[in-house]
Amino acid sequence: MVNKKYSLHKLSNGMRLVLAPNKSTKAVSIMIGYRVGSRNEDVSVNGMAHFVEHLMFKGSRKYPKPMDVSRALDGLGAESNAFTGKDMTAYYIKVAADKLEAALDILSDMLIYPKFNSREIERERGVIIEELNMYKDIPQAIASDLIDKLIYQGHPLSREIGGTKKTVSSISRAGLIKFCKQYYITNNAVISIAGNMDEAMVIKLCKKYFKEHNKRYFKDEVNRFVKKQVEARVRLYTKKTEQVYLTLGFPALADNDPRLSTLKLLTIVLGGGMSSRLFVELREKRGLCYSVNASIGTFEETGDFLIRVGLDRGRINEALKLVLKEVKRMKTSLVSQAELDLAKDLIFGTTVLGLEHSEYVAEFYAKEVLFQESITTPEQKLASIKKVTASDIKLLANELFIQNKLNLAVVSPIKSEKIEEFRELLKI
Predict the structure, then answer these.
(1) Residue 221: count of CB within 10 angstroms of its CB
(2) This model's pTM is above 0.85
(3) How many CA atoms lie within 13 A of 245 on its CB side?
């Protein structure tokens, strides 16, 4: 059973708390989200937000050593992790409902009283550099970084979330502490809890465990992205690979754009599943690739639309022409009613399944509170999906899929001097 109820509260220190109770589950998920990510960093310390995230698990007041944190979490039978994005950093713990208070105790202590032990900082610096090395061995990850550099050229959103070896090596303990004090503050945070709970008790517990959270008020004026692209952009990365990895991208919609429901359906029709146009044309009919998909990313003031393909390097021109042909077809003809209904059914199904998991619900409401002026429930978002028409999709495709806004990143053994050949293929 999907629970539709949520409640929003504000603690005396200004920290926001959103609760989404669901008595049909025996689990509860706690997520603490901060509105900070790689876009908030100075270029010289790119990777700072990600570095801070790692260190939050490396010792606190009650749990002074990394092993103390690990044992405390393991003792709860908890699922726990964290992630850093370009505009958000979040920490979560999922536990059995009767372990809720213990989980709040651990998570609050980690975030309010981090040790930033010098030895642990140096140890973790090496871990992060190895993480960066790992991504440099993954062609899909390289292509993802390249397309961001093309779409968001010259802007903080173009930077890699983890930073570079050079920047990570230069980050100091003092800088980490300053960054944490600047952004890990109550007005920049949300506590989101979903699952089996007594709401009144949870509110009391959050007041208890987060009362000492840094409540300094700070409003960060982020460097807003302005779309200035006037011609198609291409970037080649030469690497010995068995496959070619293509990523095509266009600037797209912000996360509060009312047409986002339309873009989601466009994405599914074009490349969102095994019945999508790209999957059928490239994989099922011609066997050109193993993987092909379309996706969207959104930020406060902008967003992107991406198509990713992994294919035989000997058939790259054929595949690229087919992808662009399908992109153009979204502009020139209406999607069929059957395609539209199928795409809507897919969104409804995946949303309902997601809402069965408390961690999904906690993250959903955390993002709503951090980035929206008011909360739109999953049910309200699904209602907007229902209203989208084939004409809406065609209209949006014509607005977004513009020749001089196209970006192409290629990771392959192909030499960089072939770049002009790719430019010649980019016709929509």
Answers:
(1) 5
(2) yes
(3) 19
Q: What is the pLDDT of residues 188-238, one digit of tens each?
A: 999 999 999 999 999 999 999 999 998 876 676 788 999 999 999 999 999
In this structure, are residues 60 and 13 in contact, taking their beta carbons and an 8 Å threshold? no
Which domains does the chain carry? 7-209 (3.30.830.10), 233-425 (3.30.830.10)
The identity of residue 239, as a single letter, is K
Report pLDDT digits (tens) over 310-369.
998 888 999 999 999 999 999 999 999 999 999 999 999 999 999 999 999 999 999 999
What is d(CA 420, CA 101) in angstroms, rounded to the nearest whole number?
60
Spatial separation of the C-alpha atoms in residues 428 and 406, rounded to whole Å: 9
- The residue with tokens 């970037």 is 235
Predicted pLDDT at 420 = 83
Is residue 151 within 8 Å of 249, Cβ to Cβ?
yes
Token pair in block for residue 408: 């192409």
